[in-house]
Design a protein that fits this description.
Layout (H helix, E strand, L loop, with lengths): L4 H4 L12 E7 L11 H8 L4 E8 L16 H15 L6 E7 L8 H12 L3 E5 L25 H12 L3 E4 L6 H10 L5 E3 L15 H16 L4 E5 L20 H19 L4 E3 L12 H12 L4 H16 L5
Parallel strand pairs: 1-2, 2-3, 3-4, 4-5, 5-6, 6-7, 7-8
Length: 333
């Protein structure tokens, strides 16, 4: 799925601001031969010119246990990442996996047992849970359809689980679609004691029933992002807009986009989110290897640096590293 290195190599730019320290707060790994994006593939991206010093792994259903109770199967992913993180920490010349966000069904009565199992398996890396809320009744044609039930954010047991994360000092990450942002805002207001992270700008869609409606959808998205940003317990991961379902179509082209093309198409999303949340609540993300379907790691971070160029130095530090370290409690290197 991600074996597109030759295609990506058609665009090879000089690295902008190569010494700027980056914490990439959102990436995935899958062991070989499943999707062929393991630690070595991650390093091939993070070590390709930009100064990526730390990363945070985000749950993706990888390496689940094949046996045992269903509720504990996600612990297999924790064990897999703990081993990968140990390997990354042993090599001082590569990016270190410094934090881990796992999965649990937050509706379960025995949530604490699952959280304790994550803690025991994560070797000090466990930071929180992502139980994504992405649901769309017309998602059958999406490249990566959401699997959440309709109305998850309003579920009483789910809200109890999100609150429990905050009580124990853990974060809640979510991935949803743009038409669910106000539902997420309602969740955030109902559970103010939990630090929440909205991934990928709330995923503005541009395929299926949303194709050809980008301008209207963007106008509504702007209002909804402003509304969710009023909740001070919510932080924004700004990135992840190069997924096929965002509808920019780069993954179907003969050549991948340049950083200038990336900026022209997507900068308005970034600037609006930064305006609403403030740099102190924003963190640039790669969402690799999913966004790798459309753009290279080197080109992506060049584009992010171009978008950030007009912000003050302290604001750039926050978005490239500081906010991620604050939210996920990462030690500076």
């Amino acid at each position: 799925m991600f074996n597109n290195t030759e295609w990506l190599a058609q665009v090879r730019e000089d690295v902008i601001d190569p010494d700027r320290e980056i914490v990439d707060p959102h990436h995935h790994l899958w062991p070989k031969p499943f999707l062929s994006y393991d630690l070595e593939e991650l390093w091939s991206d993070t070590e390709d010119g930009h100064n990526v010093v730390q990363t945070v792994f985000m749950e993706c259903g990888s390496s689940y246990r094949k046996d045992g109770p269903e509720r504990f199967k996600p612990i297999g992913e924790t064990e897999f990442i703990a081993a990968a993180a140990a390997r990354s920490a042993a090599d001082p010349d590569t990016a270190t996996i410094a934090g881990f966000v796992g999965h649990a069904d937050l509706r379960l009565d025995n949530l604490d047992e699952i959280l304790d199992a994550h803690i025991a398996a994560a070797n000090g890396l466990f930071r929180g849970i992502r139980h994504a809320g992405a649901f769309d009744k017309d998602s059958a044609g999406f490249a990566i359809p959401g699997r959440a039930p309709e109305g998850l954010y309003r579920d009483y047991d789910f809200r109890r689980g999100v609150a429990r994360l905050g009580e124990r000092g853990f974060t809640y990450d979510t991935w949803n679609y743009h038409h669910q942002i106000l539902d997420f805002a309602d969740l955030a207001a109902a559970v103010p004691g939990t630090t929440m992270i909205l991934d990928h700008f709330g995923t503005p869609l541009g395929v299926g029933p949303y194709e050809g409606k980008r301008e209207a959808n963007f106008a509504k998205w702007k209002d909804d992002i402003a509304a969710v940003a009023e909740n001070r317990n919510v932080f924004a991961k700004i990135g992840g807009l190069a997924m096929p379902d965002n509808g920019f179509g780069w993954n179907t082209r003969a050549t991948p986009p340049t950083s200038d093309e990336f900026v022209e198409a997507q900068a308005p999303y970034y600037h609006h989110a930064i305006k609403c949340f403030g740099p102190e609540r924003c963190m640039f993300e790669s969402n690799f290897p999913v966004d790798r379907l459309s753009i290279s790691y080197r080109t992506l971070w060049n584009g992010l640096k171009k978008i950030a160029a007009d912000y003050a130095e302290a604001e750039q530090v926050a978005m490239f590293s500081g906010t991620a370290r604050k939210v996920y409690k990462l030690d500076a290197v």
